[in-house]
Amino acid sequence: MRPTLSFTRKVKEEIVTKPFTEERLRALVSAFIKVNGRMEIKNRCVAILLQTENAKIAKFIYQIIQQIYGINIRFSYEKTMKFKRRITYNIIIDQEAEYIMGDLEISFLEGKIAKNIVFNDDMIGGYLAGAFLASGSVNSPRSSNYHFEIALNDENYAKWFLKLIAKYKGGSFSPKTIKRREQFVIYLKKSDQIADFLILMGATASSLEFENIRIDREFANIGNRLQNLDTANYEKTLTSAARQLDDLRTIDKILGVKNLANEKQRLLAEIRLQNEDATMEELAAMLSEKMDKVVTKSNVNHIFRALRVLAKRYRGDDDEN
């Protein structure tokens, strides 16, 4: 049986299928290299090593760099069999690596994000998408905990990253940061913001799926809460009815409910004895019909309290509760 794709993988694989402008692609690659890349120096030559376990992301990044810079890039993969079979894809840029870093304004020593790479909303969306492809994850909307995150290795870069999100004019996000081991994690918890962030990155179909499942879950939760409330109210009604019937039977045995002097008390007693499962609202409606005037639920409660006092007196019960 083919394993089900995680929601994170669905989002990432949707992003890499979208047609982006060259400006957006440059921003995306700049972020991916910054977050995922490692610089190596061999024989006085600079190389950039990128790694991912997703074949589609590897192919996407490989093709973008070739498309923009027209250089040959080395590509390899490694298999590991420790706990489960895993394949790591390596992209090695050992031609024009310094030029590419300069052109994309990438520094592995500084956390600053260059304005030239993210000067409009489209480029900001591309940059955030690149960072997400490199180290992001998002919980399935079927889970009970909505969570979106991008893990970064540098505290100063994380601060610039937050400023970049705040700079986006097409939406409003309130991300938070937490340090987890040696990483600084930018995360969102609000479901509507997560859905909007997916759209910002280009994952519109995933955002629609996220929203549909979220709405279905919330409707189901509302239904469950209403059902629990109905059950609680029904149990409360039964408890109140049992107490009222006990009081009325005590009065009927000693005095007889037909002999109650107060008309409202007499009519309500008769109605309750004939309708043991009726709610207070239903009793109020029936009493209103009998008396040909409006009797509220509050009036009914007051009448039952008076009848309870009478029943306790007949029982010799001094407890006023």
Tell me the β content: 5-15%
Radius of gyration: 35 Å
Shape: rod-shaped
Q: Provide the CATH top-level class of the largest domain.
A: Alpha Beta
In whole angstroms, how far apart are the ends? 64 Å
Q: Largest sheet, order of strands side by side? A: 1-2-4-3
Summary of the model, kept short:
By secondary structure, the chain is of the alpha+beta class. It has two domains: 196 residues, Homing endonucleases (Endonuclease I-creI), CATH 3.10.28.10; 88 residues, no CATH class. The protein is built from eleven helices and eight strands.
Write the layout of secondary structure elements.
Blueprint: H1 7-15, H2 22-36, E1 38-42, E2 45-52, H3 55-69, E3 74-80, E4 86-93, H4 97-103, H5 121-135, E5 136-138, E6 148-152, H6 155-167, E7 176-180, E8 183-188, H7 191-201, H8 204-254, H9 263-274, H10 280-291, H11 297-315
Antiparallel strand pairs: 1-2, 2-4, 3-4, 5-6, 6-8, 7-8
